[in-house]
Amino acid sequence: MRPGKLVLNGLVIAAAAWMFIHGTKTQTAGLLPSKARSPIATDQALASLESAAAHENTVASVAKLAGAYLDRDQPGLASAVIEKAPTAVRNSPEIAHLYARALLHRGRVPEALAVARDVESACETSLTNEDGACPAWLLARSARQLAFLEEMSAAGIEDPEMNPDGARAAFDRSSRQIRFVAMR
Fold it and tell me: Any alpha helices (H) in 23-135, and if so which ranges?
C-alpha cells in the first residue's frame, strides 16, 4: 500500500473518531417537553418577542411568541398569549395549531384534539376556497398532529407526561399512518 493512501485512511479514521466523540451541536424540537432548559427570564430574544406581541397583536407576532414559549417548555405562557389575543388572531389556523400544541403539552389531550380537528376543517375550507390561509407546511403539520392526537385519544392517554411510553407508542403508530407530500 502506498504511504499517501495510508495517511489519507488515517485522517479519515481520525475525523470519524472526532465526530463520534464530539457529536453535533444542533438540537431538535421534541414531541414531549424536556426538563433541562435555560431560565426563561434571562432570554433577550424572548423579551423582544414579548415586546413586539404587546405592541402588535398580529398573527405573526403571537405565533412567534407562542412558538418561543413552547420551545422553552412553557405551554401555560403560550396558552395565555393565545387566549389573550384578539378573536381574529385566535381563529387563524396557524395560531389554533400552536394552541393545540400548547394544550397537548399541558396534558389536555381531548381539548387539543378538538382544536386540531378545527384546524383541519379550517385548512380544508382554505384549500377549497383557495384563499391561502392555510399554507402547505401548516396542512402537513396539522395532519401529523391530528393523527398523533387521535392515537393518544384512542389509547386513552389524556396526559403524555403521565404515560410517556404510551405517548411514544401513539407517536410511532401515528407516524406510520401519515404518508403524503404537501404540494400544490
Answer: 44-55, 59-71, 75-84, 87-90, 93-105, 109-129
For residue range 25-48, what is the model confidence (pLDDT) as tens digits? Answer: 555 555 555 554 555 556 788 888
Q: How many CA atoms lie within 13 A of 60 on its CB side?
A: 3
**CATH no., domain 42-177:** 1.25.40
Distance CA(168)–CA(66), nearest Å, equals 24
Mean pLDDT, the chain, rounded, equals: 83
Name 47's Cβ contacts closer than 8 Å, sequence gap at least 6. Answer: none
The residues spanned by each domain of the chain are 42-177
The alpha-carbon radius of gyration of the chain (Å, integer) is 21
- For 125-147, write each residue's pLDDT tens digit: 888 887 777 888 888 888 899 99
